[in-house]
Design a protein that fits this description.
Blueprint lengths: L1 E5 L5 E5 L5 E3 L2 E2 L2 E7 L2 E6 L2 E11 L4 E6 L2 E8 L1 H8 L12 E3 L4 E6 L6 E2 L4 E7 L2 E6 L4 E6 L6 E2 L4 E5 L1
Antiparallel strand pairs: 1-2, 1-9, 2-3, 3-4, 5-6, 6-7, 7-8, 8-9, 10-17, 11-13, 11-16, 12-15, 13-14, 15-17
Length: about 170
């Protein structure tokens, strides 16, 4: 079973029968979906035809943003494990998101490996900070997309200064 939230409306329960037919809050949900291309779907529902364009997909957060008939739908899915973790009060424990990368010590920026829009995985090198004649590779502690780089090569930075912001 899944709990699906669309545009911050109350969550709906989605499950499937043994033969794979979807149920919405326990009731049959008859629709037909065909993939047109990588970002476009064709949907038949209640004798009406819809074209859905995939605007954004975040597998980590289990979120989808669709454009259907010039209306935007933000969809968030929670599987049974997400629901169980949420009831235990530890729903955000599965992922680490970065807000910004701060200087761990005073030093000099020797190199920058990222630019705005880059998507980082945990452990990716973000920049090189030279402190006490040693090069320190500062790495991404979690997943994130670079929003802004606040320093340039050759800049002197202080401990705690924001170097890179993430979305």
């Amino acid at each position: 079973m899944y709990k699906i939230t669309v545009n911050s409306q109350p969550a709906r329960a989605v499950s499937f029968t043994t033969d794979g037919q979807p149920l919405l809050n326990g009731d049959p949900f008859a629709w037909d979906i065909s993939r047109i291309d990588e970002r476009t779907l064709h949907i038949l529902y209640q004798n009406r035809s819809y074209t859905a364009e995939l605007l954004e997909l975040n597998r980590t957060d289990k979120t989808v943003r669709l454009n259907i008939g010039s209306a935007i739908y933000d969809i968030k899915a929670k599987d049974r494990f997400d629901v169980l973790l949420e009831t235990m009060g530890i729903s955000s424990a599965a992922t680490v998101k970065i807000n910004d990368l701060k200087a761990p010590m005073p030093g000099l920026i020797a190199g920058i490996s990222v630019q705005p829009g880059d998507v980082l995985a945990p452990g990716d090198t973000v920049l090189v900070l030279v402190a006490m004649k040693m090069e320190n590779n500062l790495k991404a502690p979690g997943e994130g997309t670079v929003k802004a780089v606040r320093v340039s090569p050759g800049d002197r930075v202080e401990k705690g200064q924001v170097l890179v912001e993430f979305m």
